[in-house]
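user: can you give me the structure for this one chain? tokens are fine.
assistant: on it. calling the predictor now.
[tool input]
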Amino acid sequence: MDKRLSFETIVKPSRSAFLATAAAAGLARFAIAGSFPSRADIVHTDFSTLPAYGNGTIPAGIRSRQVANVNGMTVHILEAGYETSGRPAILLLHGFPELAYSWRKVMPSLAAAGYHVIAPDQRGYGRTTGWDDSYDADPDLFRILNMTRDAIGLVYALGHRTVAMVVGHDAGAQVACWSALIRPDIFRSITIMSSPFEGAPSLPFDTANGAPMPRLAPTDDDLDAELAKLSPPRKYYQNYQRTRATNDDMLHAPQGLHAFFRAYYFYKSADYKGNNPHPLKARTAEEMSQIPTYYVMEKDKGMAATGHGGDRAWRRPLLHSCRRRIT
């Protein structure tokens, strides 16, 4: 097995900061309540006041609807292949910062192959409601085990006791992996995209008989301290995204939320020629300084200004390319 550290495995060593990352997104402030959350913090939406999901861009054969009473939430889903009962299910779990909408172009093909295709807006995203968006809320309901319950509750609500395949992208890959690991009787096969799964965490072994304790890996805070010493100083994006000010920084981006997200997605894509993914030698500040600023940010800037349209010197050519390439 190739033991080299890849661009993706170093950038995303774990999804332990999944809650903190999503909490920062303009898509939704991703946090949940403690034992007795304030009703004002629970997300409720009058869907009659909203435009049709996707504003006319959803392919034919896909419908949008809400499914109530799923692990305490009303879950918004896109589904295809729903016309015929008894079809095997495929569950598609999006990543960050994404929605069920991310799967719209592959859903018709999967439905044509004979599947009931289900793509939810996961807890904390999109038109799924019933979660608490207060910054100071207890994050327990967003832990992976509870998000596995979300997945099981949804497919059960839709009349499926098994899922032929669960597919996870990015942060959704961790939910997919743990769902298959914990309940292989339900989730019969798995596909993950872009975010590798390292398996269940290891524990110290044979220490009572003299085996040494394993050396602890550097924390994100340790990494940030080293990144701050670079010239120019940098910071790790997950540390930034767990701060209180981050949501407003992106939601109220000076260039506008629409322009920010268009540039953000383009900047991370293969269409942006400045991207050059390659293996890194270690998870050190020096090595990680090679990573673009959407992951290892400029220390004195928020996400809306650190490579996604905030710098006027390069914003025009980037957004010009973005407008030409993104539909």
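assistant: here you go. The chain has two domains: 22-48+55-193, 216-325. The longest helix spans residues 144-157.
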